[in-house]
Design goal:
The protein is of the alpha/beta class and about 575 residues long. Helices cover about 60% and strands about 10% of the residues. The protein has 2 domains: about 220 residues, Rossmann fold; about 250 residues, no CATH class. Helix 9 packs across helix 15 and helix 9 crosses helix 21. It is rod-shaped and about 130 Å long. It starts with a helix and ends in a 9-residue tail after the last helix. It binds guanosine-5'-triphosphate (GTP) and magnesium ion (MG). Guanosine-5'-triphosphate (GTP) binds next to helix 3, strand 7 and strand 8.
């Protein structure tokens, strides 16, 4: 699941840079934030899983200039955190180790992943993907031992570039300390963040900073209303912070001395796996929305290919297999049959093919040259290639129609250009597959000829009269001329002797057997063409097109990939970790 969330996040980031519409950009950015948070939260689960002795993590979060860094210093009773009146001063997650030492926190580098741990003094504005851990020795009256995190803001315009650090620090937190000032507490960004964080179930404290006398009660009431609009859990403790003129710092009230320690004592990570799963589930549908849209488009494409292939096969049947003037394969089988018959006195007829007769005919049949010649002169191959061309034209038309519709226009346009680029190669490949099929299929033709020949052996009367007819000799001559390359396959159908021969056989005692054999041959031929040329050949390649769309513009996450992770999301309810 973690890998999948990372993959999604990467794809969203790549795609965001290509997105045109502002509305789309906002929703993509939101999803990137959610994914970053979820990834970090799952990493947090791994962290607590590795060792139960993890230091307590407290994160101070809030809008810019709320006084987060100032509060870090108040709580630590030091000047460890940098404070400035300029907005967006803190831009890295900075951890301060209180009551523990940073050497005990080696695991954090792993948690922060690509973010690098550096000295606080080495944090620069040039690199956002860093965090620091600093040991603080001064005593605090309010803090339990652990790491107190000062975080960057999440509301300034610039915050987009360092938001990942904020989210990583937030997801790590066992306790969240939200700092708002009286000017900023109502900001939409604050409450959007608090809404998102509810799924993390972190105990929270709100610090109301920069208070002026008399405004506290009204502000707390208003805060409560905001909270109740944003969250379903109980309104947390509010710590009012007043500015002390002498020190120039806000003062943590005595009455709230134990707030953080009390919360710390209640921390329990047992439910972490469940919370992780809830978080992922909460956003799952919305994260997957563009991927599902791609899948829908791909399914529509698969269907389109399916229809086009069916149409092509129908054309093949209509224009070849069932076409009386085009179908030559069975005639070819009959011609092969004739070469198997030993016709007495044939030599006289075959003046032009004398040389042929000096060869054992069966041997001739195995000659590659003959096969090649038959393939080259085949009407079937011409037709198959035309059918394939037609299929591409049809698909291109349909793709262009789709690119005019409202849905996933660019997707269809891109599939169309992929098709356009590959069309010539696909046609070439089809053509060579078709040729191979044709060559291979001659074995079936020969087998059919043999079946007819054996049948004739059972019918000596038919066989003898066949041998005795004049037309047989003519037809044999034609069959042999086909072998020597003197005529092409398509001439076979129109040769009168062949036609007479075939009708003679059809009307003979083996007539019904002829029909049966012809039917079976056609059937076999149809299945072979369907399987090897259209399904394994063209369709397979066409169905792969969507997966070739660039991941610079598309998620390109397959439904199989998706199903596998979705299974992780619903399974393993008992015992094992959920994610
Ligand atoms: N008047 C008054 N000023 C305060 C108070 N707390 C902080 N400040 C000032 O507000 C400014 C911002 O304080 P920071 O602590 O740097 O605020 P921050 O939330 O860390 O801001 P960024 O890091 O920029 O997001 C500084 O000039 C502080 O001195 C307060 O309680 N009252
Ligand atoms: Mg700061």
């Amino acid at each position: 699941m973690l890998e999948f969330i990372q993959l999604l996040n990467q794809r969203y980031q790549t795609l965001l840079s290509q997105l045109g519409s502002e509305v789309g950009r906002i929703s993509y950015q939101q999803r990137i934030d959610q994914l970053t948070l979820a990834e970090a939260f799952i990493r947090k689960g791994q962290l607590v899983n590795r060792s139960s002795e993890q230091p307590l993590q407290l994160a101070i979060i809030g809008p810019t200039q709320a006084g987060k860094s100032t509060l870090v210093n108040v709580l630590l009773n030091s000047h460890a955190a940098g404070v400035s009146p300029l907005a967006g001063h803190t831009i890295h997650a900075q951890g301060f180790c209180y009551g523990i030492t940073s050497t005990e926190c080696q695991d954090l580098q792993r948690y922060f992943g690509r973010f690098q741990q550096v000295q606080q003094s080495a944090l620069t504005r040039e690199r956002y993907d860093c965090f620091s851990l600093t040991d603080v020795s001064a005593g605090s009256r309010y803090l339990p031992s652990g790491i107190l995190w000062d975080t960057p803001d999440f509301d300034s315009i610039d915050s987009v570039v360092y938001k990942e650090g904020v989210l990583r620090a937030i997801a790590l937190a066992d306790i969240v300390i939200l700092v708002v000032s009286k000017e900023k507490y109502a900001d939409q960004s604050v409450w959007e963040m608090m809404t998102v964080l509810e799924a993390l179930h972190q105990p929270t404290v709100i610090c109301l900073n920069k208070l002026s006398e008399g405004s506290e009660d009204i502000l707390i009431q208003s805060l409560k209303e905001k909270w109740q609009l944003a969250r379903t859990d109980n309104f947390p403790d509010v710590v009012p912070l007043y500015y002390q003129r002498q020190t120039g710092l806000p003062v943590w009230p005595e009455a709230k001395q134990n707030v953080l320690r009390n919360l710390a004592s209640k921390i329990n990570h047992k439910k972490q796996p469940r919370f992780e799963q809830e978080l992922v589930k909460k956003y799952w549908q919305s994260w997957l929305e563009p991927i599902i849209a791609e899948h829908h488009a791909a399914s529509a494409w698969y269907e389109m290919v399916d229809v086009a292939i069916k149409q092509a096969l129908e054309n093949y049947q209509r224009d070849y297999l069932n076409h009386p003037r085009h179908y030559e394969t069975f005639q070819h089988a009959v011609a092969e049959l004739l070469t198997l018959l030993e016709i007495p006195g044939l030599a006289g007829v075959l003046t032009g093919a004398r040389k042929v007769l000096t060869w054992p005919i069966r041997k001739m049949m195995n000659l590659g040259r003959k096969r090649q010649h038959i393939a080259d002169s085949s009407q079937e191959l011409v037709l198959l290639n035309q059918i394939a061309e037609h299929l591409f034209i049809q698909l291109t038309d349909r793709l262009m129609d789709k690119a005019e519709e409202d849905h996933q226009r660019v997707w269809w346009k891109d599939v169309n250009s992929l098709l356009r680029r590959q069309r010539q190669d696909l046609l070439k490949e089809f053509s060579s597959r078709a040729k191979n099929y044709h060559l291979d299929f001659q074995q079936d033709v020969e087998k059919t000829a043999q079946r007819l020949y054996y049948k004739l052996q059972e019918q000596p009367v038919v066989l003898n009269s066949l041998r005795a007819t004049r037309v047989t000799a003519d037809a044999v001559a034609i069959a042999l001329t086909l072998h020597t390359g003197g005529i092409g396959m398509h001439d076979l159908i129109f040769a009168p002797a062949m036609l007479t021969m075939t009708s003679w056989l059809t009307e003979s005692a083996i007539g019904s057997y002829m029909h049966k054999v012809e039917y079976e041959l056609k059937q076999q031929q149809f299945n072979t063409v369907k399987q090897t040329l259209f399904h394994e050949g063209i369709a397979k390649k066409l169905l792969l097109l969507p997966a070739q769309l660039s991941t610079r513009h598309y998620f390109n996450i397959s439904s199989t990939q998706l199903q596998a992770v979705e299974q992780q999301l619903t399974e393993k309810r008992h015992g094992l970790r959920l994610l």
